[in-house]
Amino acid sequence: MNIFRFAGDMTHLLSIIVLLLKINATKSCAGVSLKTQELYLLVFVTRYLDLLYSYISLYNTFMKLFFICSSGCVIWYIREHKTVSQTYDSAQDTFRVLFLACPCMILALTVNHDFTVTEVLWTFSIYLEAVAILPQLVLLQRTKNVDTLTGNYVFLLGGYRALYLLNWIYRILTEPGYRQWIVWISGTIQTAIYCDFFYYYIKSWRNNERLSLPS
Amino acid sequence: EAQEAPKDEL
């Protein structure tokens, strides 16, 4: 594992910790999209089915379990927690997730390496992860004065993807025969989706202003 | 055709 991959994973881990801390400390999930969190849970469950039949390393196993449990935990907070659930604004979080999930499933059934249940579900998870942030970005755009921690959460999530791009470039240069086209193309699209957000995040940070995305 | 990389990333 190279430094970019490790830094990417740690950024991903940190983004989730920031989100959980925000929810727990403020007892509020204002500005957090439940739809995006549900999509991530679906992404993690369909991708990490291999926990049941393949072992890579203790590190991978731990991280996979952490990602599944933490997104489940965020969803639990938003849906079930007595005070946090009251701060969820479902009227703003209206993205139609089936518009994302269905095309991803059709694409996974069409473009995959192997037409088996686990391989199609894995491919589905790669496609879905690329677009799962969209409900969150739309919600941020509707929220005037985005909460600092929510902004940081999305920034760290985007940072994790950018570091994965560097990881792939490093692997291409150092591992002969290394290639994974589905992951590369989806990951590049996923990172590109954050570009606009990065621009406004850095701008607000430099001007010392609260983040607000233009609609 | 060469094999795709093993699923060793997260």
Automatic annotation (TrEMBL), chain A:
One of its GO terms (biological process) is protein transport. It comes from Micromonas commoda (strain RCC299 / NOUM17 / CCMP2709) (Picoplanktonic green alga). PANTHER family: ER LUMEN PROTEIN RETAINING RECEPTOR. It is a multi-pass membrane protein. InterPro entries: ER_ret_rcpt. GO terms for molecular function: ER retention sequence binding. This is ER lumen protein-retaining receptor. The chain crosses the membrane at residues 55-77, 97-115, 121-140, 152-170, 182-202. Belongs to the ERD2 family. Keywords: Endoplasmic reticulum, ER-Golgi transport, Membrane, Protein transport, Receptor, Transmembrane, Transmembrane helix, Transport. It is found in: Endoplasmic reticulum membrane. One of its GO terms (cellular component) is endoplasmic reticulum membrane. Pfam families: ER_lumen_recept. Its main location: endoplasmic reticulum. PROSITE patterns: ER_LUMEN_RECEPTOR_1 (PS00951), ER_LUMEN_RECEPTOR_2 (PS00952).
